[in-house]
Design brief:
The protein contains one helix and no strands. With about 160 residues, the protein is mostly helical.
């Protein structure tokens, strides 16, 4: 019976040793899994830090781009305002020039009317001059006839006794 108890004890110790070995293997596997997970978490933490830094850098770039866009929009608005003022000034200048053009066109029309009237007057004066020249020639001819008649001796009249 002693052998039987010893056999049972050896079997129990062998079983306990086997379970201890399996538990050790499971513990080692769990330890290796824990180490792998810890390494993975550490790698993820490092990647998270890298990504956080990149997000911060990208956010800074976005902020700079937004500021640059706002500055550009402000510059465009001020340029637009200046160009609007220039357009308004040029529109006023064009209106003034068109009014001046209309006034000058009216003056040209009036001067053309005066020119036409003066041309008509000139033609009338020319015709009057021609008529006066004809009258002067006629009067000159009369003067010459009278002078010729005055120069011819008049026969003396004879008296009858």
């Amino acid at each position: 019976m002693r052998n039987l108890i010893l056999g049972i004890l050896v079997a129990a110790v062998a079983i306990l040793g086997f379970f201890a070995y399996q538990s050790s293997q499971q513990g080692n596997a769990l330890q290796a899994d824990l180490t792998a997970r810890t390494d993975a978490v550490t790698a993820l933490e490092a990647e998270k830090t890298t990504l956080t830094e990149e997000v911060a850098r990208l956010q800074a770039q976005v902020d700079d781009a937004v500021k640059a866009a706002a500055d550009a929009a402000t510059a465009v608005q001020s340029d637009t305002a200046a160009l609007t003022e220039q357009v308004a000034a040029l529109t006023g200048t064009v209106a003034t020039l068109e009014a001046d053009k209309a006034a000058l066109t009216d003056q040209v029309s009036a001067l053309e009317g005066e020119k036409s009237a003066l041309s008509d007057q000139l033609a009338a004066v020319g015709a009057e001059r021609a008529a006066l020249a004809d009258q002067a020639a006629a009067l000159q001819a009369q003067i010459e006839e009278m002078a010729a008649a005055a120069a011819t001796p008049v026969p003396e009249a004879t008296t009858n006794p």
